[in-house]
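Protocol step 4 of 6: structure prediction from sequence.
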Amino acid sequence: MEYELKHQDKFTFIEEGEGPTLMLLHGLFGALSNFKDLIEYFKKDYKVVVPMLPLFDLDIFHTTVSGLAKYVQKFIDLKGYKNIHLLGNSLGGHVALVYVLKNSDKIASLTLTGSSGLFENGMGDSYPKRGDRDYIRKKTEVTFYDPAMATEELVEEVFQITTSRLKVIKVLALAKSAIRSNLGEELNQIKLPTLLIWGNQDIITPPFVGEEFHKLIPNSQLHFIDKCGHAPMMEVPNEFNVILANFLKNLTVA
């Protein structure tokens, strides 16, 4: 499914459907394909918005989690979105958390799946020489419970990033920023209804990370999905979408 990429000022984004705003923040190696099942499912009832995070476009001093959160803030301010249902996967979850901690008035609910912010085993922990496709394939496979999910197309997307020296430097900068930006002492400030969806076989942010988020965020609920890794919305989209839809529906009822 191809979506129209819209451009406004310096921002590039997808906006599909009408209704309450459901905003999706992708991770470090995120692509639109990560969210295609989610977009298709929710665009019937929601305005689904996916800003393209400038992972490789910010100067090196702002290539940080907080730099990306400021970018999201400027995007939301420009578009005038309110009462946003904000969802983030992996690094996108971390960016969502940093944004919410300073701008909770614009957010109606928060959903985290495989989020960094407490602990993660990331791609950025070690980098071999650029151009090692086998390494990239193995690292991509680790994202999933079923390694077959790491298609040649997906491996190629990640591989192309790693062929650029500057992009590799920025991947490392973001990975190190995520490790430095531990939010453990701030999460109790988040009072929003929060949904946590975690893969039981997530190796990058293991299940205990989801449990820790659940313990630290007061108004949170945690759902584990079995036979699922770090990207539940890709690997088990049907189950993921039902959990998210029920959460959002219950908010409306309440």
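Step 5 (inspection) to follow. The first helix runs from residue 36 to 42.
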